[in-house]
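Title: Prediction job returns without error message
Component: structure pipeline
Severity: low
Priority: P3
Assignee: unassigned

Description:
Job completed but the reporter wants confirmation the result is attached to the right record. Sequence as submitted:
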Amino acid sequence: MEKASMALRSVTKKYSKAIWGKFTGAIKDYNLIEKGDKIAVCISGGKDSMLLAVCMQQLQKHSKTPFEVRYLVMDPGYSAANRKKIADNAAALNIPIEIFDTDIFEVVDNVPKSPCYLCARMRRGWLYKLAQQAGCNKIALGHHFDDVTETVMMSILFGGEIKSMPPKLRSANYAGMELIRPLYLVREADIIAWTRYNDLNFIRCACRVTKDDETTHNSKRAEVKQLLNALRLQNPQVDDNIFKSIHNVRLDTLPRYIQNGVVHDFNDRYAEITEE
């Protein structure tokens, strides 16, 4: 398959620094894949998860660490056109997907408040369940660098807390399961560039709320994207600085922080803190 070969080659050749190097770098830096892992790559049909699938295929061929991969597509109620597009793209990229049907869109369609939150929770639960049934111990999601920085800003501006999106996470409800994010260091702009270079056309968020057009969806994440675009005009390093900030947290300067559900108050630690 020429298209599949070209897409695979471009990841390690043309985009070796922007995508492949950062993909493998995140796996190494955060110890995301270990010997004997069986990983469910969760494919939504969008550009991020499709790129993740391509990268995982390439990694499995060349990695010295043996691991297994399953490519799972959890259908929450896609339209026939979107489901066909996912299947066609997977075939063109030679990705052996397994599609599972659910009624998530039907359920959240009747929820008046926060349907996106419920949809995300239900999707995550189904993915863990399907992956576990397939004998996997990890699920891999396509969240990237921009998702991380946007999440930090959203938590501060709209949640009143400093909260990030970690590169990996143990499941609280599915014993022995972990979530990993191998595209953690990859920029969205580079994913878009790879997509265009290979003349690929993936689905967007295909739920009934956004009606397959995430660019006009009036969400908090869209607002943060607009804010960051404006800030980049004044400071091109703003994304890097946000990302670096969650790797350089100075706990001594915080009046309060929470770790493992335990509140650590500044007054309790004050005797140990001195001026620098």
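Comment from assignee: result matches the submitted record. Residues 2-217 form a domain with the Rossmann fold fold (CATH 3.40.50.620).
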